[in-house]
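I hope you will forgive my troubling you with a question about protein structure. Could you please explain, in whatever detail you think fit, how the structure tokens follow from the sequence? Thank you for your consideration; the sequence and its tokens are set out here.
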Amino acid sequence: MIVVLARIKGLIKAFLTNLGLLVALSFATGSFSSLFLAGLDWIQHNGSYLYALPLVGLIFQSFKVPAYLIIPATWLSHLAGASVGREGTAVTMGKVLGEKFSDIDLFSKAGMAAGFASVFGTPLAGAFFALEVGEVGKINFRHIPACLFAAFFANYVSLHVYGTKHLSYPSVFLPEFSGAFYAKLALLGLFLALIAFLYKRSESIIISAFDKSPVQGPLKGILAGLILFGVLSIPEFHETIGLGSEFLLRPFTSVAPDFALWKLLATNLSLGLGFKGGEATPLFLIGSHAASGFASWFSLPLGLSAAIGFVSLYGGLAKTPIAATFLGMELFGPSAWFIYFIITLIVLFGSGKKGIFSNQTWADYLPKPIY
């Protein structure tokens, strides 16, 4: 009996210790996310300085940016006008904080969940993103409670302690069932898979070409900045400068499919040339604008198509279909949840083995794309 009581006491102590660490981790991550978003908001309202791109490129080429400095590094990229996102920064920040609190993998996952959730205001998507992203097709179910707790609490801290505001998206609804409608949706999935494949392929080409550049050392960073400055100075690329959050709602009411092409190229160049930031927001923009263009060509509902492109292109390249489904439900309502899931799977397998996270592996049981 004494042994049993001692065992129970030890379990309770371990539970309370881990709970306290999770609370502290979630609060810290929500706080840093709020600071990060406030900085991005300030940059967006004060304009980008393209002429600073060579200097920022020089900094990134001269010094390896440690993970704990990813927030100021991302601010620098945005301030100079690079076409990068924010989720990679938030997830990296959360992971670093989690590893500082404990070397247990659980806290790394919980920190990632908290970072994603608090930067987008989507706790369910954040929790399942952290659970899915490590290995495609495999989830550690023991981590679910901690990731959910961290995601919801960090999001609460960001919203209610710091007053962070997130963009409100329109709710989308399904029209009446018809075979033609679902055939068109399948075509939309294949269209998005093609865009995802081209995105990864062009990114690989840019990275490979820049790695082989005869210019090395700090001058290589200056060259990167000059190249990106030249491209972003072209009129067609002006809307691709920076985060681009002011265009997130546009594809739900109007059609501008050419923007998807320019944003894809600008983002590939920005990241391929070494500038820091995530890929989620650019992919949201690319997917939603491309899908709204597809909707206009094939007579699909504009808002629904934009929502599908928004979540499925990113979810397919991140290889996180459950997170993409919850992202769609949290942003656009639950009515099309199964469509988000199915089309994300089409993009996931259609875009190839490689996603946007290079260290990702595939579960053994899961069939892999042949390319």
